[in-house]
Amino acid sequence: MNLTDFKATLVNDSPPAGLAAPLLALWLDAKADWKGAHDALQNQPDGNGSAWVHAYLHRVEGDPTNARYWYRRANKPESQAALAEEWDGIAAALLAGQL
């Protein structure tokens, strides 16, 4: 699945089957379910992209201190991009298996 295909699933009521937790969290966030997105990342290892998505979610929440903590855990620079642009970048990287 590529980014275009992934974004096309957002018209559905349910996420695609078998999504890894970081992609599920991004899908839920795009559906305006911040709590569900955050819950999907609880107890996930940092190395699979979860920490990066966690950082993004705390930016969405408006908690820059917590976001900075998660960016450090993800070994990613703190994003200054628009939220939609960061969402696309993270999703594309996850879908391409770059994490």
Number of individual domains: 1
Mean pLDDT: 95
Radius of gyration: 12 Å
| Unreliable residue stretches | none
Largest sheet: none
Number of helices: 6
Report how far apart the termini are: 15 Å
Structural class: mainly alpha
Bin the strand percentage. Answer: under 5%
Provide structural commentary.
The chain has one domain (3-10, 21-95). The protein is built from six helices and no strands. The chain has helices at residues 3-8, 21-30, 34-41, 50-61, 64-74, 83-95. Helix 4 (50-61) runs antiparallel to helix 6.
Structural topology:
Elements: H1 3-8, H2 21-30, H3 34-41, H4 50-61, H5 64-74, H6 83-95
Helix pairs in contact: 2-3, 2-4, 3-4, 4-5, 4-6
Tag the structure with descriptive keywords.
single chain, 99 residues, 61% helix, globular
Question: Gist?
Answer:
This protein is mostly helical. It has 6 helices and no strands. It has one domain.
